[in-house]
Amino acid sequence: MLVRKFGGSSMGSIESLRDVIKIVKAFRSDQVVVVSAMSGITNTLLEATDAAIAGKRRKVKEIILNLLNCHIEIVEKMMKSEKVKKETINYFEKVLNTLSGFLKAIEELGELSIKSRNTIMAVGERLSARMLAGLLEDCGHPAEQLDLEKAVNPKFKKADHDFYIATEKIFAQKVKKVLAKKKTPVVTGYFGWVPGGMLDSVGRGYSDYCAALIAAGAKAESLEIWTDVSGILTADPRKIPNTQILDEISSEAAAELAHFGAKVIHPQSIHPAIRAGVPVWIKNTFRPQDRGTAILHEIKNPKHVIASITSKKSVTSVSIASFRMLLQYGFLAKIFNVFAKYEISIDVVSTSEVSVSVTIEDDSKLKEIIKELKPVAKITVHPKKAIVCLVGSGIYKRKGVAGEIFTALGKADISIDQISQGASEINITLIVDEKDADKAVAVLHKKFFEKGKK
């Protein structure tokens, strides 16, 4: 069995949907198709929710009508069977009429619960899945929409390991029932009530995660994430002209890249599949002939020391210095507890005998944090910084990589404020001035990929 996930860009137009249909029809064995909402639809739904809370009834009606029309337009232009077309449009109207009533109730209450927001967000994936299932049926490929909105076991109170293991099993059972009918399940990437809320517990990459849960539970041959790029690149092609597509990358390296700014895949999304031993492929809907990038549990003989380089701007560096740190157990824990108290996530940490430096993206509570730490430490804040992260399974196998990085950046007159290496030894993270971030990535990319390809 193959699990394939198509994102919003793949589902976003008549031309891209034709590409998706060709890809699905070309595979003759069992496959499960997971879809995101059409590009921009989830944001539109959240906009409708805000309008309802604000009492803007006309705005809500306008948004719902536009949602209906954009989906109907695709069906009208692509479907030949009047029967399938009518059934599909009737489904759209039913779902959006229900949404209209739901938003009206929210308007009257003037507030929105996490569960209600989840229900509204599910609409995009429900419309998308029904549309693709209808289009496949219309062109002779047996398919059936599978709505996972109510599939999650409600007994769980938190989204922990046990919750996701149970969810994998439920999803696998449901897709296998559809496959038993000799049909392709077209699954909503939105999968219902997650304790704590879908956005807070999983994030906007929940369709990728849904596909990974299905792949893990069904012990799939592989999981394919179809998007608008031909794989994971050595750097951002919008900034670096001579990027290369990686044949393969380790799951740890891919997760590091995602965390530090790469947009190809959601940080959590590959974990269930990799844990279950299912390889993940990043593929291009618009260039299906391209090989793509395989994300594997481990790369035994990496071709490159560095696999990829990414950056994250708009970060703040906070240095915390105190002689009380010297030989004092628990001092670091006290510092991190203060950041945790204000729900501020820390990206990069560097320590010495009497100081610790951290980077944060959200500085909204920084004044409160400084106030708590000031009695025990000297605090220095450095805004407008950037994280530059080099990842690769070959880093720990080759000596002197840090020296090569320092030399290359030094020659380019780029100062390094902070350096950190993860415990897994597959990444080296640097903090530089934000204005130097793009230049630093370009210099390092040239060093490791464009001269001798070390």
Structure described in brief:
The chain is built from 14 helices and 14 strands.
Gyration radius, to the nearest Å? Answer: 24 Å
Category from helices, strands and their pairing: alpha/beta
Give the total of beta strands.
14
Query: What's the overall average pLDDT, rounded?
Result: 89
Beta strand %: 15-25%
Total domain units? 2
Note down, in words, how this protein is organized.
The chain has 454 residues and is of the alpha/beta class. The chain folds into 2 domains: 2-229 and 264-269, 3-Layer(aba) Sandwich (Carbamate kinase), CATH 3.40.1160.10; 308-450, VC0802-like (2-Layer Sandwich), CATH 3.30.2130.10. It is 43% helix and 19% strand. It has 14 helices and 14 strands. Strands 3-4-2-1-5-7-8-6 form an 8-stranded mixed β-sheet, with helices on both faces. Helix 6 links the parallel strand 3 and strand 4 (184-188). Helix 3 (57-78) runs antiparallel to helix 4.
Record the SSE blueprint.
Layout: E1 2-6, H1 14-26, E2 31-35, H2 41-53, H3 57-78, H4 82-109, H5 114-138, E3 143-146, H6 161-179, E4 184-188, H7 198-201, H8 206-217, E5 222-227, E6 248-250, H9 251-259, H10 271-275, E7 280-284, E8 293-296, E9 308-321, H11 331-341, E10 346-351, E11 355-360, H12 366-373, E12 378-391, H13 401-411, E13 418-421, E14 427-433, H14 437-450
Helix pairs in contact: 2-3, 2-4, 2-5, 3-4, 4-5, 6-8
